[in-house]
Amino acid sequence: MGYVTPEQITQAKELDLLTYLQRFDLHELVHVSGSTYCTREHDSLKISNGKWNWFSRGIGGKTALDYLIKVQGFSFTQAVEALVGQNFSPVPRAAQAKPKEREPRKLLLPQASRCATHMVSYLHGRGIDYDVIDYCIQTGRLYESQPYHNCVFVGRDLKGQPRYAALRGTVGDFKGEATGSDKHYSFSIAENTRAPGVHLFESAIDLLSYATLLKMNGRDWRQDALLSLAGVFKRKREGVVPLALSQYLQDHPGTNTLYLHLDNDEVGRDAAAGIMEGLGDKYTVQDRPPPYGKDVNELLQRKLGLTHRKEEWSR
Q: How does the average pLDDT of the chain come out, rounded?
């Protein structure tokens, strides 16, 4: 456990959320109107007049410190360290209106728990196969954080360096991303670097659910390239290619087919349409939403007879 000084705590409390996002996570910031903003991950989290409020969860605050603790799941010490680290330098208010080229973001991964009991129980309760879970743990793609026992899904670049981490609560409906996450490098399983196709999902849990379905059908799920898009746009944007997919195609030029396993709701259908519009002239794009159920995980749960737990594991 790290140690922070009173001076560091005072400095961390001085940074408001809007300035923090402008400086460190501009992609996450979405302008709503006037002086009001929201985050791309949570459109009900509004930022205005120096305060922020996550209306769907009934929580809020003033500072970036509050945000890291209440929304991102950091401990107090981790949040302070994230805000006053060596790379921290607040943006002068006079310069905020001028876009600046940002330095590469530094990923701050949550501290790992010594055991993964909560995480394994949660994922298996949603139908994920133990072998799939164990593979992800052993390869460093997945671990349980402390003290909040969140699932941490790690995405890496071609050099094997962690560049992204999605957080999913094992209790309640908490979802977030580790500070400094780069959506170009989302959670994936792609052992076969020469796989001609890539299967796309909205979330890491849907990806693991699909791997489980492949295993149930006797297939080697490690030979299929599986990529989570770390969420999709909440409204249709024609021809827009998600960052994670764009990076994957750049890193794997031999890819020729895209399989879209996005959700059976308006958001998922609009996102699929946008990808087909943006890449349909360059790749074979096959739209393969779940034949029933909202998403791939719900499809898996129905096949396993776990639909009675839908409310408990609701996303």
A: 86
